[in-house]
Amino acid sequence: MKPERQAERSVEMTLGQLRKLDAPAAPSQPTPLTLEDLYRAHRMRLIRLAILLVDEQATAEDVVQEAFAGLYRNWGKLRDGAAAVGYLRTAVVNGSRSVLRRRKTAREYNPPHQVNARSAESLAMLSAEHQAVVGALGQLPPRQREVLVLRYYGGLTEAEIAEATGISKGTVKSTASRALEALQQILNASR
User: Fold this and answer.
1) Which positions, given as ranges, span the membrane (predicted)?
2) Do 86 and 163 form a contact (C-beta atoms < 8 A)?
C-alpha cells in the first residue's frame, strides 16, 4: 500500500471512529427550529471539531460558545434552518483560526508549553494507533489539519470544505494530499 494511502486510511479510521462516537441521536423532529434545539443537537460535535483544530478542550468550548453567540446575534438574517449548521461550522473553523493566530503571536513572546487538554474519556476510547494519529494531526500545520479534520471527521465534501475554510476546491485537494504525506512521515518517524 502506498504510504499516502496508508496515512489516509489511518486518518479515515480514526476520525471516522470519533464521528461515530459523536453522531447525534436520531432527531425527533426533522430539523431543529430553535437555537436551543440546534445547541442540543450540534454542540458536542462542534466542540470535538474545535478540539481537533485547536487541541485544547477549554479553548474549543469557548470557540463553540462564540459561534452560537454569533448565530444568536444573526438569527433573524438566516435564510433557513439548514443554513444555521453551515454558519456554525464556518464560525468554529474561523474561530479556531483566530485562536491559533493569537496563540502563535503569544508564543513569539513567551516560550511555548505543551498542554494536552484532551479529555481522558476521548483518549481512553481510542486505541494506541488512533492516539498516534490524533497526536500526529496535532503536528500538522493548521490548514492541513483543518482540511483533514473537516474531511474525515466532519465528513464534508471538497466543495463543503472549500466553503467552510474560504479556500478553493483545488487548494483543498492539494492541501489534503500534502497533509496525508506529512502525516505518513510523522507516523513513520514515531514508530
Assistant:
1) none
2) yes
Domain assignment of residue 73, given as a range: 3-190
| Position 190 pLDDT exceeds 80 | no
Angle (CA) 70 159 103, round 5°: 50
**Burial of residue 58 (number of CB atoms within 10 Å: 0-12, 13-18, 19+):** exposed
Place of cell 462542534: 46
Indicate which CATH number applies to the domain containing 8. Answer: 1.20.140.160
As a whole number of angstroms, the distance between CA 176 and CA 146 comes to: 9
Average pLDDT value for residue range 29-49: 82
Alpha-carbon gap, residue 96 to 81, rounded angstroms: 23
Measured between alpha carbons, how far apart are the two ends of the chain, in Å? 17
Measured from the Cβ of residue 152, the count of other Cβ atoms closer than 10 Å reads: 23
